[in-house]
Amino acid sequence: MITADVTVYPLKTSSATNVINNSINSIKNNGVNYQVDSMKTRITGSKEQVFSSLNTMFSEAERTGGEVSMVVNITNSVK
Fold first, then answer.
1. I need a surface site. Which of 18, 49, 51, 62 has the fewest CB within 10 A?
2. Which domains does the chain have, with CATH numbers?
3. What is the dihedral sign for C-alpha 5, 71, 51, 19?
4. What pLDDT digit, counting tens, does each position of 43-72 carry?
5. Can you tell me the distance from the alpha carbon of 46 to that of 69, in angstroms, rounded to the nearest whole number?
């Protein structure tokens, strides 16, 4: 089990909120638990599920927003 805190930053778009929301919504069926707050999305699951979800989020943000930056902090700590 791992946890990733992820933030997506659309760089050149006038609809950043849509890009971020589409990115988050893209992982609804990935089998991970996720919580959204004002600064990040926290994803918890198996290593394979979390890394797959990060890839899905980045790909969706890139598809809908063009240039994006994604900041991720990953831990396998149980705290």
1. 18
2. 2-75 (3.30.70.930)
3. positive
4. 999 999 999 999 999 999 999 988 999 999
5. 24
